[in-house]
Structure formats: structure tokens, C-alpha cells
Amino acid sequence: MRKLSLIAACGIVLFAACNKNKTGEQEIVPEKEQVNTVAARACAAYDVLEEQLRKDPSLQQRMDEIEAFTARYAANPAAFRVLADGNLEVPVVVNVLYNTAAQNVSDAQIQSQIAVLNADFGGTNSDLNLTSTYNTVKFTSASTKPKIRFVLSAINRKSTTNTSWGTNDAMKRSSSGGIDPTSPTTTLNMWVCNLSGGILGYAQFPGGAAETDGVVCDDNAFGTTGTASAPFNKGRTATHEVGHYFNLRHIWGDRRCGNDGVGDTPAHTGANYGCPAAGTRSSCSGRPVMMTMNYMDYTDDACMYMFSLGQVDRMNATWAVGGPRASLR
């Protein structure tokens, strides 16, 4: 695999922390108000972003730079050189931190998650045509899949006295009892551990510090077997978080009728939970049918199954020449 230098223009340190919340409300719930249950998915990405902007006034400029590059790519993808076969192969290192034998997830559970990522990012998932709410040929045609393949490179395991972990990246540092990332500029690192506060997982957006780059998943929301528990037992937490890793935002833009930076995703009132009925409309202008089956919503694993074409363009921009994840090539 060819490797390019990491583009230094982007220095965003953003995180997407996904929690389980017992309510079905469509509004953003601040992290401090989240409830530790397993009934539904919620996320504190917007709150974390606000905190990062408060601490680092220069962050906004760096965010603007990566968005400007993404816009240039989306306007003319052909102008950006891609790999000869048009596919990106990403080596994955899985770092397992366990306090109990059950938390030491098996190789089979890890392999099941890699298989889900390859199906979801390759558009070969068996549930792709689960409903006809959106024309899946239009939104996920074979020629416009993300074309990202994940290959398990290594598994690191470490027993820990920590009973749970938070979102301060301690699991990513050996000095804090965690596991340091392996070659983070050329490898996707995933940490699997027991996350506190009902958190499902979180990811770092492109441009963040190399030493904290990657994706974190709770062991109960990782893969399709072993400790994976319904309704988060189909591997879609990792799909959602890897979407963030490749610069996708939540489909509702982290605010009522917000903007996720993608032109072909409809306006959402807010996050959707559980398994909404096909054809559910938002209360935003024009009352569009919401894309509740999108991986970047908060629906249950069994009820999300697609990326839109615009999301695919946004992800591909990250590993195009000049993109913030070009070093994965």
C-alpha cells in the first residue's frame, strides 16, 4: 500500500461520544443530562466541539480549511488523483482493555466487527434494501460506494484495574493504563473497553492529534457476537464512529434542523431513536422524509443500513491527494 505524508493543514481535535439514552426525544441532550441505560443511542459530539472551540480559538480556522478542501473535492472529484483501482485498504489495529474475562472480547467478535465494516462501507450489507423509503440505487449506487476495505492487522490486549473508561482518551495512553496507538497516521486504531456513563463509543475527526486518533467502542456495542448486546449487536456503532473518523457529522447537524455538510441528506428535526416507521417526516422546512436508516442517525443497529452519495463524497475527500487522511493510502 502506498503511503503519503499526512497533510498538516488540519489540526482539529474533535470527538464524537455516543451514549445510550432512555428517552426518545429529538433534541440534543447535553452529556451531563444523559442517562445510563441501553434503550437508545445519543451523542455528545456537539458539546465536545463547543468545549474544544472554547479552549482553542484557532480551531475554527483549521475546521474551515478542511471544509474548504472537502467542498473543492465534492465540486470536482476527477481533479483529485485517486488510487489506481479506486479503492482504499485500511489496516486496523484493535486494542482491547479488559477488567473482567468477559470484557476481553474474542478474536471471533473482533473479526465479526471487521466483517460488518467491510459490508457497510462496501455496500454489500444484506439489509441495504430494508425499506423503499429512499431509492437505494440513487443514494448508494455501486459506482459510488466509499470503496474502503478494512483489514485486521493486529490485536493488542491488556488487563487493567480500571473498571471503566471515560472520554478523556486515557485508554489511548500507556501512561494512563491504556494502550498507545500503533502507527496512527497510516493505521486505523480501535480501542474496545468498558465505557462509563452508558457511552457506546466515540471517534476523533480528521486532523486531530496523531496520539489520540482512532475510534473507541464499548465492548457491549462491538461486533455481532460475544458481549455485543441488542439493540447494538449488529456492529453499527463502529460503522457510525468510523463515519466520524472519515469526517461525517451527525445527520441532523447536532442541532434542530441543522446542517451536516452533505447536500443530499434531508433536514432532520433531531436525532431519531429505535426503529422509526418508513416515511417519517421531520418538522423542518418542507417537512422532508427523514433518512432514519442512515448510519449517522441514532436509530438501533437493525434499522440503519446506508450512506448517501454526498456522504460518500465527503468520506472520499479525506483520503484523496491533499486530504487529511491521505497518509492512509
In short:
The chain has 329 residues and is α/β, with parallel strands linked by helices.
Q: Beta-strand level of the residues, as a percent range?
A: 5-15%
- Spatial ordering of strands, largest sheet: 2-1-6-7-5-3-4
- Helix segment count? 6
Q: Percent of residues in helical segments?
A: 10-25%
Give me the count of strands.
7
Low-pLDDT stretches are 1-14, 20-38
- The span between the termini is 6 Å
Order of helices and strands: EEHHEHHEEEEHH
Shape: globular
SSE layout:
Blueprint: E1 15-20, E2 41-43, H1 45-55, H2 59-75, E3 88-98, H3 107-122, H4 136-139, E4 148-159, E5 188-193, E6 199-204, E7 215-218, H5 236-245, H6 309-319
Parallel strand pairs: 3-4, 3-5, 5-7
Antiparallel strand pairs: 1-2, 1-6, 6-7
Helix pairs in contact: 2-6
Explained architecture:
With 329 residues, this protein is of the alpha/beta class. Helices cover 21% and strands 15% of the residues. It has a 7-stranded mixed sheet with strand order 2-1-6-7-5-3-4. The longest helix has 17 residues, at 59-75. The relative contact order is 0.20.
List descriptors.
single chain; 329 residues; alpha/beta; seven-stranded mixed beta sheet; 6 helices; 7 strands; 21% helix; globular
